[in-house]
UniProtKB/TrEMBL annotation:
The keyword Protein transport does not apply. The chain crosses the membrane at residues 6-32, 44-64, 70-93, 105-128, 148-172. This is Membrane protein. Keywords: Membrane, Transmembrane, Transmembrane helix.
Amino acid sequence: MFAMFSAISIILGFTPLGIIPIPPVSATIIHIPVIIVAILEGPLMGALMGLVFGIISFATAIMRPTVISFIAYNPLVSIAPRILIGLVAYYVYKLFPGKKESLKIGASAALGTLMNTVGFLGMGYIIYGNKIAEALGRDPSTIGKWVLGIGVSHCWLEMLVAIVITIPIVFAGKKIRR
């Protein structure tokens, strides 16, 4: 499964299918394979799938730069939070033993997505807040609110899409494995 979802991630990452540019940043669905692999294969494979996503994020920042792509050149921004998606998704799923399966998967998808958004934007802001403000021609004192606005405006939609896609794929994956 890891190889198949890695291939899907590469396709999503290097075509317009997985990254939706909303300048100066992008919304994504590339994190969804990380969540699915974490639930189906466990935390190690989820973390490795997150590494694949992080490398794709790093590469696309170089190949299709935006005005603030420089934040993704740092592995602490582009790779580390993506590895954590797999861990968060797996442990959220395992946090609810005996609960309705679709709720466990949905919670895992939602919080894995939140980890992606908060991790990437949060690390970018912590490390490069002033440089982001400079690149965007904004007052550095307002950049925290801008980053928060981007996170809120993107995250809810990414969460919804992740929940809708992840639940049936995980059910299918579990059925195939039986």
